[in-house]
Amino acid sequence: MQKAVGKQVGSSLLYSDYREWATEQGVGRLLTQKNLVQRLVNRHGLSVGRDMTHRYLEGAEFRSSADNVLAFRERESRQ
Questions:
Q1: Torsion sign over Cα 40, 46, 47, 48
Q2: Where in the sequence is the domain holding 47, given as residue range(s)?
């Protein structure tokens, strides 16, 4: 994920990808979705938004690839 003015990332999708990454990395204790979102807001200056059906983080987007790091959706399609 990277900062991007005017962009949004759904918090459920973000958490799903975080869980997948953390499991692959062998992280023993995962953050809750609420804690993950709070950390991103507090540490990276993102804000939380919502509409009638979704909650999202404003000011961020998924990066497709950078510095040999592949986005989860891209990694999944290559396997």
A1: negative
A2: 2-78
